[in-house]
Amino acid sequence: MKKVIFAIAATIAISTLSTAFVYADAHNSGKEENEMVEKFQDLTRDNTWEQKGKIDLKFNTYHPQGMTKVGDVYYMSSVEIIEKPVKYNKPQEGYDRTPGKGIGHLFVFNNEGELLKDIKLGEGSIYHPGGIAYDGKSVWVPAAEYRPNSKSIIYKIDPQTMKSKEVFRANDHIGGILRDGKHGTLKAVSWGSRSFYGFNEKGKVLSKSNNPSHFIDYQDCENAGKDSMICSGITELPQQGSANDKYELGGLALLDMRTMDMVHELPITLFSTQGHVVTRNPVFLENTKQGIKMYAVPDDDQSSMLVYETKVNRTTGQDN
To answer: Which residues belong to the signal peptide in this entry (predicted)?
Structure first.
């Protein structure tokens, strides 16, 4: 048993170390930093996303939320709902629903879908982790009450020790967060990404603005370099002739982190076998030689990580 634990710890440490070097190299090279952003801006709804893999996760994933990758190891936030929040007939004390009950998880797993670590996050009514991101040193995770206009705890996790540390608390539901390594600030989205926040690492609000885009609600965001971030998400649209059925419209968006303006966006029309659009919650994008690779976990409980790739034909005529 001790040998198994040591092997897992060694694998995580090596993967983390190699990724730290890759991250540092990418952010010291203008070409590498710009590549993902430039490729993303060449994506259209005509791009073909080819499924390259399907990894069955060998643990109960509950309701996955956000995902990032550190070397060959994946981090995925998830909420285990014990008692679902119930909407009030009319708002009470500024809330539109009960807090419910649950447990916040940050799962760490490998390429075989094996669970390496289950990090518990939150306290009391704060149990809903959101979209997460890795900044080359730490994995940043928000945990919030499962209702809008509530409160949150922002954590960072050291991938080498797997220990979480509370960084600060926020007076809103923070649904996703990332750290801008270039400026040392944090960018965050609220419930349904209707508001954008800028924080310093002590939790001081540096900026707050309304999200002008209503195409999708951003669920998971990651730093893309070149003062940019890429967010994935979903919106549910009514189906004609049905009072209950909803169509899940998925999408990806490139944002300018300096202004939080949308630069480029496109719909994603890939669905899981359970009928969920793949950008429903956890998504991680990775730069490849010829295009972009997308990792997604759209389904709950007994989930699979779906892996897609698309080729990008650069409009500038450059060879990728």
So the answer is: 1-20
